[in-house]
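Hi Y.,

Following your request, here is the sequence exactly as I used it, all 134 residues.
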Amino acid sequence: MKKKKVIILTVILLAIVGSGLVYNYTFNSKHRDIANEEATIALSAEELFSHFQKDELLATTNYLDKVIEIKGEVTSMEEGEVILNGQIQVNFNGQVMANVANGTSLTLKGRCVGYDELLEMVKIDQATITNKEH
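Below is the corresponding structure, written out as tokens. Let me know if you'd prefer a different format.
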């Protein structure tokens, strides 16, 4: 009986320690700073969208969670978000969108988070503008 209690207490103690480690890793680890990372891939909005249209699985493998640089024209705007070429939904990381209007050509970098089949758009988040042309 005493041996069972020792085993049960050991299992409970390991579970508590394991839970603490998982919690610490999940909530206290450093987050990526996409704005300061170097883009690994540079392409146009049309090229990126085309890759997802041709072979979504291959494009997901090549671009998902990677920092990419994209160039395209703003076709729609909302607060903190733009749509490039009607195909790429870009969410910004708190950057002020001053003087950006429809028709503005943007070069930006951000993290590719995948393709939304319902909206038929590639999604980019944590984006920052690297170049702006009117």
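The first strand starts at residue 41 and ends at 44.

Thanks again,
Q.
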